[in-house]
Amino acid sequence: MKLTWEPLTLELRTTFRIAHGADDRRYNVLARLDEGLGEAAAVTYHGETQAGIMEYLSRVADEIAKCDDPFLIEDILNRLPLGSQAARAAIDLALHDLWGKRIGQPLYRLFGLDPTRVPLTSFTIAMDEPALMAQRAQESGLPIIKIKVGGENDEAMVAAIRNATNAKLRVDANAGWTREQAAAMIPRLAQYDLEFIEQPLPVGDIEGLRWLRAQKFGLPIFADEPVKTARDVAAHAGAVDGIVVKLMKTGGIREALRAIHTARALDLRVMISCMIESSVGVTAAAHLAPLCDYADLDGPLLIRNDRFKGVRYDGARMIVPEGAGLGVGEG
Q1: Do residue 161 and residue 36 come from a single domain?
Q2: Among the three residues 104, 122, 143, which one is the final residue of a domain in this structure?
Q3: What integer is the mean pLDDT of 72-81?
Q4: How many domains would you assign to the chain?
Q5: Is the overall model pTM greater than 0.90, yes or no?
Q6: For residues 186 and 206, what is the distance between their CA atoms, to the nearest angstrom?
Q7: pLDDT for 282 beyond 90
Q8: What is the rounded CA–CA span in Å between residue 25 and residue 2?
Q9: What is the mean pLDDT of the chain?
Q10: Are residues 210 and 323 in the same domain?
């Protein structure tokens, strides 16, 4: 099998500001494995860069070229060296796309999943002036809004959006609060009728999450940034109410499935989500969405130059393509 790659620059519709920083574009990588297609998202706060991803792909290309059976997905992935999770995800996605294309079936069918059971997706409003955030939420017309917080005007931003829309609201602090800040802020935000809150505390503070949950503020807590593998899911059992699965964190579909099933065994709720990704990465995640309680797969809605056609949006409803593999095409 021949592995090739190219840089993929995504232009954002609006500046995407979260607790980690702000971007007007993201620098991803597109990978191809024969006719299979994959994507790697370079997220700096996960230690990923476009250059680092491409360096990893160049390092493993010769080893992958020795493989002539794309159906040996587990063996191929297990032989990959440690390194960029995003690059590993791109290879994993391309392998699964190739698998489906060789068999002639969409990925959801190969996993025995019903594409009509995909949850509605949320739409993300990045941090900005409260009035601008409220305007974007209102203009979206979508029924589920995820609000990025973790700054100085958190309550004002949430209040402005709540006053502008009757949508369901979710809040994502991106590890931007201390224990004390979270304990003070969560009860104040709960009055705005939120579904849940993502990652209120810094990565690694599992005991802090456990303590925060024990305060019984009435707002479910989900872990995101520190949950990359099934082992991370198990480590958070009892400390949170749910976990966020992203293919770019898990290193692809294979480990994402393990993480989802581990969460289910531990009575944790699951949201499948994405980084800033094109329709390649997001469509791959959408194929797994029927296994999850919630979806946050709005990547293509946040960028202005998506080269690919995959998952389609009817408001917040996602329509997974019926084509073989990921079902993603260019054009």
Answers
A1: no
A2: 104
A3: 95
A4: 2
A5: yes
A6: 17
A7: yes
A8: 29
A9: 96
A10: yes
Considering the domain architecture, whether residues 269 and 294 belong to the same structural domain is answered as: yes
What pLDDT is attached to residue 293? 98
Q: Is the pLDDT of residue 77 over 80?
A: yes
Residue 238, pLDDT score: 97
Q: Is 327 left (phi over 0), alpha (psi -120 to 50) or beta?
A: left
Range of the domain at 175: 110-330
> What does 97-123 look like in DSSP terms, one character per residue?
HHHHHHHTSBHHHHTT--GGGPPPBPE
- The burial of 298, by beta-carbon neighbours within 10 Å (0-12 exposed, 13-18 middle, 19 or more buried), is given as buried
Coil, helix or strand for 220?
coil
The 3-state DSSP class for residue 289 equals helix
Tokens of 116: 């009509």
Backbone angles phi and psi of 293, in degrees to 5: -85, -35
**For the segment 244-255, what is each residue's pLDDT rounded down to a tens digit?**
999 999 999 999
Residues 63 and 138 in one domain: no
Q: Are 198 and 222 in contact (CB under 8 A)?
A: yes
d(CA 105, CA 121): 24
What local confidence, expressed as pLDDT, does residue 21 receive?
Answer: 74
For strands 242-246 and 221-223, give the pairing. Answer: parallel
